[in-house]
Amino acid sequence: MNVFNIKRSTAFVIALLYQIVFFSSFVYSQHPSQKEGLHIQIWAELDAFPGAFEDTDNSSTEANVSSIEDSASSSASASISSATASTTDIATARDTTSVADSKKEEKPIPHTRSIYNFAIQRAKEIAPFIMGGMINGWSFDYVPYDKTRQVPEYFTYEEILPFNPELNSISYHNPQVEQGRLLCWADCERTASQQLAYERWSSIVHPRIHGHGSASVEKGFDGIKEACGQAVRDAVREYWRTMTKNKPKEILGTVLLIQSPRIYISEGQYVVDLDFFLKTDRIILYSYY
């Protein structure tokens, strides 16, 4: 290979590395930093038992549903603002509606109001629970299943600290009704000490893990918490399977929920996909005699 070809190959490699670094920086910038505050989208079903009603092809029915959803979305801003002390002004696309339209929207039909009240109450349960996991984290105690020793699997998790709305007020924005669900954005600022704690969590010392969990929608909010617990167990179990040759007797530690949670309904189950930082506090091994 002559000198010209070497120089051309070197230039190509440098250009390729530059593109990779530039693209990685661009992709990373699309994800807002969680250090100073949280900005996540949450949703809650309008129906206490989602999936109980079948869809129809009747055009008039679709028009009525659309009208109800528009009415619910219009009243969502006022309801969340009045129900949450920390919320000031909720920006929606309907803020520019006429006075006449506003007067009509002040009195949604009773059926819409009752469904909406359930949805907003559920959303206000989910938001503090998820944000508590992102700010304070969850502690866990996990005993792996061991067939040889006839040890059943055991797992439990709990909040490290209860979510404090006075310390971390939540504001809700842009509510809208879509496909039988109430969607909105929830914002929460970290305190200075919580920002420092997040910096420690995000260091290379704590590995990043991923877990998947599910639970019946019939359990309501408890089903969401159960599914999140299964995600923690799944993440811890899969991580330590690759890190230790001999199965431990018990693992104790804490996790910090990171990024926006992915929660959806599939076949009558709440399904969650969650990412965490893991801190293993203690591993108890079996003793051999």
Features of this protein?
single chain, about 290 residues, alpha+beta, 5-stranded antiparallel β-sheet, 3-stranded antiparallel β-sheet, about 30% strand, globular
**Estimated structural class:** alpha+beta
Characterize the largest beta sheet: strand count, sense, and whether it forms a barrel: 5 strands, antiparallel
User: Radius of gyration, Cα only, in angstroms?
Assistant: 24 Å
What fraction of the residues are assigned to beta strands by DSSP? 25-35%
Order of helices and strands: HEHHHEEEEHEHEE
Low-confidence runs (pLDDT<50, min 5 residues)? 12-31, 51-69, 83-112
Number of helical segments with 4 or more residues: 6
Distance between the termini: 65 Å
Total DSSP E strands: 8
User: What general outline do the C-alpha atoms trace?
Assistant: globular
Mean pLDDT: 76
Helix content: 40-55%
Identify the strand order in the major beta sheet.
Answer: 3-2-7-8-6
